[in-house]
Amino acid sequence: MTQHLTVVDHPLVQHKLTLMRDKGTSTAGFRRLLREISQLLAYEVTRELPLTTQNIETPLQEMEAPVLAGKKLALISILRAGNGLLDGVLELIPSARVGFVGLYRDEETLEPVQYYFKVPESLEDRLVIAVDPMLATGNSSVAAIDLLKNAGATNIRFLCLLAAPEGVARMKEAHPDVPIVTAAVDKQLNEKGYIVPGLGDAGDRMFGTQ
Ligand code: URA
């Protein structure tokens, strides 16, 4: 991917995102929509994966047919909200390896604090797709990408549902080599670090917590 930021403006993505933003959407509805939208976003984030060919036999004849090249890609969920995106992406790429980065946001400083890190081996040989629905301040995304690079990853993409301009700028400054794919870039962050107009706390909405 050459572009730093890709906004997926597909009508189905935009329609589903609007339903997710609506505060009247139930937890079950929100979860279902996130699963659906994550598959559409996964389609976009994997658009330029390298292909090779494999010799197969169709019922009619032999052919050299395209298949994904290289090692299985790694999906990294940034906990906890990342899991909502992860599930849908995994349905589309079931053979992917999966890792988890646990970061929580200190409510005072808005700085990320690490509490868990477990990723697949040989990250250096894989395309790594980090997933987190909300790119807000960018602090936790930048910290997660720092950890993945320290673990060897060199080819990373970042998949989110919604981004704030502040988060996009922060990522571009810290990790200009990491393309971002999102469904929308909203207006701004509020004083509490929430994306406005946004959709609220993605983790709370998908897990039914407050
Ligand atoms: N995380 C969320 O879940 N929502 C926001 O608006 C910002 C960060």
Automatic annotation (TrEMBL):
<dbReference type="InterPro" id="IPR000836">
    <property type="entry name" value="PRTase_dom"/>
</dbReference>
<dbReference type="InterPro" id="IPR005765">
    <property type="entry name" value="UPRT"/>
</dbReference>
<comment type="similarity">
    <text>Belongs to the UPRTase family.</text>
</comment>
<keyword id="KW-0808">Transferase</keyword>
<feature type="binding site">
    <location>
        <begin position="132"/>
        <end position="140"/>
    </location>
    <ligand>
        <name>5-phospho-alpha-D-ribose 1-diphosphate</name>
    </ligand>
</feature>
<feature type="binding site">
    <location>
        <position position="80"/>
    </location>
    <ligand>
        <name>5-phospho-alpha-D-ribose 1-diphosphate</name>
    </ligand>
</feature>
<keyword id="KW-0460">Magnesium</keyword>
<keyword id="KW-0342">GTP-binding</keyword>
<feature type="binding site">
    <location>
        <position position="195"/>
    </location>
    <ligand>
        <name>uracil</name>
    </ligand>
</feature>
<dbReference type="GO" id="GO:0004845">
    <property type="term" value="F:uracil phosphoribosyltransferase activity"/>
</dbReference>
<feature type="binding site">
    <location>
        <position position="105"/>
    </location>
    <ligand>
        <name>5-phospho-alpha-D-ribose 1-diphosphate</name>
    </ligand>
</feature>
<feature type="domain" description="Phosphoribosyltransferase">
    <location>
        <begin position="7"/>
        <end position="209"/>
    </location>
</feature>
<dbReference type="InterPro" id="IPR034332">
    <property type="entry name" value="Upp_B"/>
</dbReference>
<dbReference type="Pfam" id="PF14681">
    <property type="entry name" value="UPRTase"/>
</dbReference>
<dbReference type="InterPro" id="IPR029057">
    <property type="entry name" value="PRTase-like"/>
</dbReference>
<keyword id="KW-0547">Nucleotide-binding</keyword>
<comment type="pathway">
    <text>Pyrimidine metabolism; UMP biosynthesis via salvage pathway; UMP from uracil: step 1/1.</text>
</comment>
<feature type="binding site">
    <location>
        <begin position="200"/>
        <end position="202"/>
    </location>
    <ligand>
        <name>uracil</name>
    </ligand>
</feature>
<keyword id="KW-0021">Allosteric enzyme</keyword>
<comment type="function">
    <text>Catalyzes the conversion of uracil and 5-phospho-alpha-D-ribose 1-diphosphate (PRPP) to UMP and diphosphate.</text>
</comment>
<dbReference type="InterPro" id="IPR050054">
    <property type="entry name" value="UPRTase/APRTase"/>
</dbReference>
<protein>
    <recommendedName>
        <fullName>Uracil phosphoribosyltransferase</fullName>
        <ecNumber>2.4.2.9</ecNumber>
    </recommendedName>
</protein>
<keyword id="KW-0328">Glycosyltransferase</keyword>
<feature type="binding site">
    <location>
        <position position="201"/>
    </location>
    <ligand>
        <name>5-phospho-alpha-D-ribose 1-diphosphate</name>
    </ligand>
</feature>
